[in-house]
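Subject line: Sequence and fold of a protein, written as structure tokens
Area: Proteins and the way their chains fold up in space.
Start of record: The labelled sequence and token lines come straight after this line.
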Amino acid sequence: MYNILWSVSVLLIFLGILLAGAGAFLKFFAQKNEVYKGRAEARVVDIVTEPRKGAASLSEFRNYQVAVFEFYAEGHLIKVRDSADTYPCPYYRGQKVRIAYDESAPEHFQIEDRNLFYQLGSAANILSACFILAGFLLFFMYASGVRI
């Protein structure tokens, strides 16, 4: 009966290896398709409320909040505003955010945590580690002769 432990452990380890490969591919794909190569840690220095324009001004929330980021690029202090139209602002004053910016024009930037492929790759890597650990645990149970 405990041969099932062997089969399940091999299956979990195999799935874990596949997920690790998929996670590495997703992270590589995310890095390859990045628009900006410069990296910095920005700090939210202000949150500004602005009125919406056009048809959006007729909605229930007539204003939106914009985070103002400050970071150093090539030794120069750069102050930029987030382009997201949100209310309330997802950031708070003093919060640190990782960003990618254009090295030739640092005012063009992208917040790093918004990259879906990188997040999926990280999730796949975490799941692969869990599968591989569970597979080895079941294998050691099989090797020690545990019966279910």
